[in-house]
């Protein structure tokens, strides 16, 4: 088992990474301060891991709420299911919420924890690669609004994160690839050495090799933690983490949330950012080829949906949170492993990229 | 004009208190960091003060959302009206929300600010005495849930508070009295000198004397700020502020939110806490008479509703946030101006008080 400490002053916490750690009472119990626990999970994950998690919670009063599975349920109705379960089971301000599932469960459980009785304790047990490498660090929680993705939320740090690599063996292949998109992202924006390792060990990752997955999760979380420690509330460099996401969110919104997986949209989005960087003279065609080959090797799309026009992209990008006063800031690459945040580019390079998408 | 600084480290802010300060651009503008402003108010307050407030916001892009008036609208639907207004008017993360109205508007606007795009800037312009002396300090925001009052919320500090005493001249008499209940509370829990002043100047307060109101607001906020500075997240002494509130919340819940005003329920609740303190031998009958006389002089009820039984009280108190593991902690008086938090009392004294209620 590996341990990564996320350093955020008095809100610091550890991430435990390894196989079969889900039911380890010694890892969980020290981080639960009261007697009450509410596990938030979904109908897909519950049959697989709920009993195992509960077996590590002996001596606590454990309740559970099982949400429907899918990004389309990441909304106020699901949050209300959590609130209602907490209130009807009389959970008080000393309760601890545990998110067991992927990013959607983690975001919703975290937001419920941030807002139930003005904030209660929270533990993450992510069961997808995407949530293990992404939601484990950063404290972002929230839900979608009919008028925009992730528009409602709060920053709320967990007490501890348990990333059990064994849970990835039951993950559909498409979701494993979607998680690898974020792993690739960390290499691309700031860690060329890690990127080379990902290129070499992609077959192991796709085959769910436990040691390879553990390293991928550790190095992804390490990179993210370093950025988040510099910029907890996302006022500066944290935006680097959005490489591929501004294009990607537009793809997800246009296709309807849940049809393209988040990681798939990020894969195509990172390719668009790479191509735009080439247009600006910041990447060579060899470097573009390397990125393209890596994204393809992860079984991810390297272009946006065929039915999505330039106008569609512009429409769906205009509501993006990352626009400051309606100007679209993008994360681009000035070389492999060196991302920058910029709104200083010719509009033609931007629009040509959308046509290509 | 008086200025009180609320000292909360890097979240410190000033409260400006005085007559006709609502439209003073010099007091507001320095606390608005972006260009976008969303005023959140209600259908009662908007016709009275919305234009005046807007006249002090020249040069900003000002939008507004007008909510229905009443505690029964302090719910997720109203919050969604705010989110929808922000998203449809394309407010970004640099926007500032301004609450113009009483406690309900302030709580909802603050909660929307705490959760829109994971937190945006927030200014309070309270227009009721209750909100000027209570919600101005402490950063509590939130909404009711069908299963419990104020169960959903967040801590979110404003950038500045403008308490314009002139707005109290349009306040219904019943609401003025309800606000005075909280003013009396500060005297009772920790400030005997202030309490004596309230007793002497009650006629001026009821007559909306601007200087008397200004002093009452200043001293109430000063007392609350001193407590909140010691205990921002309500883990200890901040509970002293709940004198009369545990009984009061039960009254509000039993009567249906909005039928008894919050301050009216707190008035009756403070009287119940006073009577229970007498049963424990902590107050003399003379002191009880003094409290009773003061509450009556503010035109507030000194007993709970006639149709509310002991069992009703117990039922509606059991979901209270202040119960730790289902044990009812109460704020009681060990003398005038000296409140204590305790769950160490004979049950008979508690139950006898409910019968009297």
From TrEMBL, chains A, B:
Belongs to the sugar phosphate cyclases superfamily. Dehydroquinate synthase family. Zn(2+) binds at residues 182, 245, 262. Catalyzes the conversion of 3-deoxy-D-arabino-heptulosonate 7-phosphate (DAHP) to dehydroquinate (DHQ). It comes from Litoribacillus peritrichatus. Pathway: Metabolic intermediate biosynthesis; chorismate biosynthesis; chorismate from D-erythrose 4-phosphate and phosphoenolpyruvate: step 2/7. It is found in: Cytoplasm. InterPro entries: Dehydroquinate_synthase, DHQ_synth_AroB, DHQ_synth_fam, DHQS/DOIS_N, DHQS_C. Coiled coil: none annotated. Its cofactor is NAD(+); Co(2+); Zn(2+). PANTHER family: 3-DEHYDROQUINATE SYNTHASE (PTHR43622), 3-DEHYDROQUINATE SYNTHASE, CHLOROPLASTIC (PTHR43622:SF7). Gene3D superfamilies: 3.40.50.1970, Dehydroquinate synthase-like - alpha domain. It catalyses: 7-phospho-2-dehydro-3-deoxy-D-arabino-heptonate = 3-dehydroquinate + phosphate. This is 3-dehydroquinate synthase. HAMAP family: DHQ_synthase. Residues 179-323 form the 3-dehydroquinate synthase C-terminal domain. Its EC number is 4.2.3.4. NAD(+) binds at residues 69-74, 103-107, 127-128, 140, 149, 167-170. Keywords: Amino-acid biosynthesis, Aromatic amino acid biosynthesis, Cobalt, Cytoplasm, Lyase, Metal-binding, NAD, Nucleotide-binding, Zinc. Pfam families: DHQ_synthase (PF01761), DHQS_C (PF24621). Its main location: cytoplasm. The keyword Chaperone does not apply. Residues 65-177 form the 3-dehydroquinate synthase N-terminal domain. Binds 1 divalent metal cation per subunit. Can use either Co(2+) or Zn(2+).
